[in-house]
C-alpha cells in the first residue's frame, strides 16, 4: 500500500480567540486518533474505551488525550 505525499502545513489564521485554536487543535487530534483506531480494527464507539484511545495515542506518538478529546474521538466513530 503506498502512502500519499504529506501536504505542507499552513499556519493557522491570526486574530481568532484562544478558545478557537484550542478547539481546532482538539478536533485535529481527535481525527488523527480516530483514523489510527480505524486502522487498528476499532470500528465502533463502544470498542473505543479511554484505555484503548490512550494506548493508540501513545502508539502514534501524541500526548495522552483529555476526557473531552476521548469523547470527541468516540463521536467521530460510527
Automatic annotation (TrEMBL):
The protein, known as: Uncharacterized protein
Originating organism: Streptomyces reniochalinae
Lineage of producing organism: Bacteria, Bacillati, Actinomycetota, Actinomycetes, Kitasatosporales
